[in-house]
Amino acid sequence: MSTLLLLLITGVGLGALYFLVASGLSLIYGLMGVLNFAHGSFLTLAGFLGWEVGRRVGDGTWGGLLAGMLVGLVVGALVAAVTELVFIRRLYQRHIEQVLVTVGLGLATVALFEGIWGTDPIRIAKPAWLGGTTDVLGASVPNDRWLLIGAAAVVLGLIVLFLRATPYGLVIRAGVENRTMVTALGIDVRRAFTVVFAIGGAAAGLGGVLASVYYGQVSAHQGTSLLIYAFIVTVIGGLGSLAGAAVASVLVAVIQQLANFYLGGTGDLAVVLALAAVLLVRPRGLLGKAAAR
């Protein structure tokens, strides 16, 4: 029983990490119809710069980690906003070009990161408490999972609050439904869409820093690896559904953990089979809209 509980809780923790990456993808696609394959680059760059700042503030301390998380948020938001302004803004409604440009950016930035920080993973230090465990009904749960779960819950709450309770959020939602009408009212929808990209990038940046805590290292390919799971989560949850991304993140991670333990390390295969099953039975995803973009 304790083993199953441990797998479930650690699965939720891994799902929280997947959600931090997938939330930006889902938000950007749901509100703007853009599939951003460069999303992993935001995560990786934030992870590296967060590590660089964190170790200078205090290697392996809470101060260093919090500084790294703040840097990750800011870097992710800035890089995402610049990407939208320079590359994406001219390509709305041109989906093939969007894919080609963002895939190219993703590949080019991996090579850039390898040139700056090397090809080998860099081990990081983290606060002592995060390296310990907490006993839950006999299950020794790694403490870093609690940090991931808390961060994902805060991000989800803030995004929902922003979209539903702020003037900018209302403009963004209205612009998605009828961009021409909102523009006719004198509102610059393009600026609002840049904000959406920045929010998605900030979530990815935070995910990049926390991914280095989860794995104990940061590498040039870290964002690419997590991006694969983020796309799986986004498709299973329903393209453009933030709630779907949250539910699918937990389901995918728990399935992965259980299959790795009980079925001889077949977690990735189980996730792919789950993706195939959802696409066959419910192509729009668990909580996706019936009229897909």
Structure description:
- The chain is mainly alpha-helical and 293 residues long.
- It has a single domain, classed as ABC transporter involved in vitamin B12 uptake, BtuC (Orthogonal Bundle), CATH 1.10.3470.
- Helix content is 75%, strand content 4%.
- The strands form 2 sheets. Strands 1-4 form a two-stranded antiparallel ribbon. Strands 2-3 form a two-stranded antiparallel sheet.
- A hairpin with a 2-residue loop joins strand 2 and strand 3.
- Helix 1 runs antiparallel to helix 8 and helix 2 crosses helix 8.
- It is globular.
How many DSSP helices?
A: 11
User: Cα distance, first to last residue?
Assistant: 44 Å
CATH topology: ABC transporter involved in vitamin B12 uptake, BtuC
Helical coverage, percent range: over 70%
Radius of gyration: 19 Å
Instruction: Report the structural category.
Output: mainly alpha
Characterize the biggest β-sheet. 2 strands, antiparallel
Which H/E pattern describes the elements? HHHHEEEHHHHEHHH
- Percent strand: under 5%
Task: Report strand order across the widest sheet.
Answer: 1-4
- How many individual β-strands? 4
Average per-residue pLDDT, rounded, comes to 89
Dominant shape: globular
- Summed up, the domain count is 1
Instruction: Give the low-confidence spans.
Output: none
Highest-level CATH class? Mainly Alpha
Mind telling me which CATH architecture this is?
Answer: Orthogonal Bundle
In short:
This protein is 75% helix and 4% strand. It is mostly helical.
